[in-house]
Specification:
By secondary structure, the chain is an alpha/beta fold. It has 14 helices and 16 strands. The strands form four sheets. An eight-stranded parallel beta sheet has the order 4-14-13-12-11-10-6-5. Strands 1-2-3 form a three-stranded antiparallel beta sheet. A three-stranded antiparallel beta sheet has the order 7-8-9. It binds one RNA strand of 86 nucleotides through helix 5, strand 14, helix 11 and helix 13.
RNA sequence: GGACAGGUGGCGGAGUGGUUAAACGCACCAGACUGUAAAUCUGGCGCUCCUUGCGGGCUACGGAGGUUCGAAUCCUCCCCUGUCCA
């Protein structure tokens, strides 16, 4: 295993919530953490400098997308992804496993790997556990994810078992290849699969623990299953995973999801929701969301959220933001993204704070009673 | 004054006798989005009624009248707009 260190600073008494600190090649990350998504080596609509201001400590980029364009070797030759994109804090790269799911019309999968048709020009591409590691080694990310098969929901037990076992075989290959080619400063995370079936999740976890990883991700969730099912899977995961390793719930989720899953022992999250929703005019507030382009905000002089201390809420009115959104001004995406990311990152700050002061249950209760998503 | 061209739903613009409440685009209204093929996509968009259905009624293609079983589409007159000629 690599040199990554994870300090468990505090564990909540009433819940499984954990307060930790992740030491990575490009810095220290306070957990629980939310990682904004920067698929193509850019968190859409915001500069890295702005991300730092908002409190982002770590971001996610995507190996598949950077492999297709501009190519991982080019990124390596440009000094690695951090230098290339001007972000000197930690980066986690997703392997392309999610694209196995989201680009399902364009791929063919077998035990060896995944054949894709490029979503850009249709040209043939090939991704295997080894290739995914090679790409991420070239990118130089702090945390490398194994290639997995992210299954669509719903799936039968049989389908889920077959897919999970394939993912686990891939995880073992990833482990071996990573040890051969990656930098010691990089960390490797395995991904638990098994859909919503407890026995498969358990088997998957066991297989990963055998191989041994720096951290453990929970994959294949938030793909359409009801939220309570997702919570059940996460909750069942807690006693199976080692306490001294970070747990990462991939692709989740809503602000409510984050708190509920922190309560179930999750340390790391990523999700496109704050950034994509921002561009589509959906803004988070403590009282629920608003769709800023709606006509009801035409002449609303209030900020998005009166309680929010983000740079957008300090200065701009809903009426102006609605105008930008309706007019499709680029600034609309910028300001909305700043607000939503601040909301998410601030939510994580509050979560960490409340865990530290042994008041996490209070925060959880407030959120559960608020009707927030 | 004359010669052409043309007046279609909020706008632009198809449609030249029937399945046209009228293509398509824009605007407008609402919704979706969870390890980003997403600054994307979907739906609605005359009025009205109800037992909400590929439902009923009404109004609608400049105005008035006419032909026809049936007219945005054909005819007559009128009004208006654009271009050109005097």
């Amino acid at each position: 295993m690599g040199q990554m260190k994870f300090e468990l600073l505090k564990t909540d008494r009433a819940t499984q919530a954990r307060r930790g600190r992740l030491h990575l090649a490009h810095g220290v990350v306070e957990t629980p953490v939310f990682m904004p998504v920067g698929t193509h080596g850019a968190v859409k609509a915001v500069m890295p400098e702005q991300l730092v201001t908002l409190g982002a400590e770590m971001i996610l980029a995507n190996a598949y997308h950077l492999f297709v364009r501009p190519g991982h070797e080019l990124v390596r030759d440009q000094g690695g992804l951090h230098r290339f994109m001007g972000w000197d804090r930690p980066i986690l790269t997703d392997s392309g496993g999610y694209q196995v799911f989201s680009l399902s019309d364009l791929r063919k999968i077998d035990d060896d790997g995944v054949s894709f048709r490029s979503h850009l020009d249709g040209s043939p591409l090939y991704l295997s556990p080894e290739v995914a590691i090679d790409i991420q080694a070239a990118l130089g990310s702090d945390v490398v994810m194994v290639l997995d098969d992210c299954l669509a929901y719903p799936a039968t037990h049989e389908e889920a078992a077959r897919s999970m076992r394939r993912s686990m075989a891939w995880a073992v290959r990833s482990r071996a290849h990573f040890d051969a080619v990656a930098s010691p400063s990089q960390a490797l995370f395995g991904i638990v699969q098994g859909a919503v079936f407890p026995d498969l999740r358990k088997e998957s976890t066991g297989r990963l623990l055998e191989a041994g990883f720096d951290g453990y991700a929970i994959g294949g969730l938030a793909v359409g299953e009801p939220a309570p099912d997702m919570y059940d899977v996460v909750e069942a995961q807690d006693p199976l995973l080692p306490r001294d390793r970070p747990r990462y719930l991939m692709g989740v989720g809503t602000p409510r999801n984050l708190i509920e899953c922190v309560a179930r022992g999750i340390d790391m999250f990523d999700c496109v929701m704050p950034t994509r929703h921002a561009r589509n005019g959906w803004l988070f507030t403590r009282d629920g969301h608003i769709v800023i382009r709606n006509s009801r905000y035409r002449s609303d002089e209030n900020p998005i959220d009166a309680k929010c201390r983000c740079p957008v809420c300090r200065k701009y009115s809903r009426a102006y933001l609605r105008h930008l959104s309706v007019s499709k001004e680029i600034l609309s995406s910028v300001l909305n993204t700043i607000h939503n990311l601040f909301f998410y990152l601030d939510t994580m700050r509050r979560i960490r704070h409340f865990i530290e002061f042994e008041r996490f249950s209070e925060l959880l209760a407030v959120v559960r009673n608020s009707g927030a998503q």
